[in-house]
Amino acid sequence: MHFALPPRKTSHPPPYARSARSSTARRKQLQIGALLVCAALIVFYLVIKSFSSPSNRVPPGTPEVVIVTVLDSDMTKDYTEKIEENRGYYATKHGYKVLFPNATDYDIGASPKSWSIIPAVRHAMTLYPHTSYFFLLSPQALIMNPSLSLINHIMDPKRLESLMLKDRAVVPPDSVIHTFSHLKGDRIDLVITQDGEGLCQDSFIIRRGEWAKFFLDSWFDPLYRSYNFQKAEGHALVYSILVSRDFIFYLQFLQEHIVQWHPTILTKLALIPQRLLNAYGLDIESRGGVEVMYKDHDFIVNLVGCAKDPIRSCAQEMESYYRQWKTAIGKDN
Hints:
alpha/beta; 11% strand
């Protein structure tokens, strides 16, 4: 019996071809999978960012500027109320905050009470950790032109760069240590003025950051406080800028001080014209004379030295400026 043979296999088999339906389904699965992976990565990034760096977020209502004025128990109630009223009006107008610590709030040992300005600013930084700028303002000063915001008037980087006194002797008139000439406004962390005798440490602006903490801690170093500087924290500020902390220096008559650049501090410091931040209410020839005296529409008037001069009265000297300020804000209102 003969059986039919199966058909012979061809030596050229047809190519394998996937059905159009299965190919489309596979593509959709891959697209959905890719979208899910991308969504998961985005959610993961947002969660990590929100929990890992909360300090970078500025909470709503954070003031851009905090004004710090250190009061003294020796001041009369009427005097302190006028100071608080003056700062409070300005802060409310621009959305700032104010802090009025007392000089006795801080442990400065046997050092003069004026040293308390340094821990006071550090205290403000602790209370307002997200605030950009801290403005230490002397209790012998009044804000005379409240229409000027601190940012537009001074701290805007382009504005600050145009105001900076470059290549200026830090200790006038002929110190070999000068401010840098190449600094940019957005790199400055400390803004201060200078009169004919030196740096005016009772009023300055400092920007929040690690450098600010380093600077204040260096300035408040017990080594500096232990020296009997003629002008307490004022002379210590000069030496903290000029003198390298790697050298020991002694204040002795007829002996030159060993000084060296301290770029860590000097590269962050800007001197600006005095009347922009610290015009004086009295003609003191050794400190600049008529050129640095207050004129109408200046930002600040400072009755410098009135608290330490036994023949002067801060309250009496301030009265005329206070009335002038009250008249000005009355017109604004």
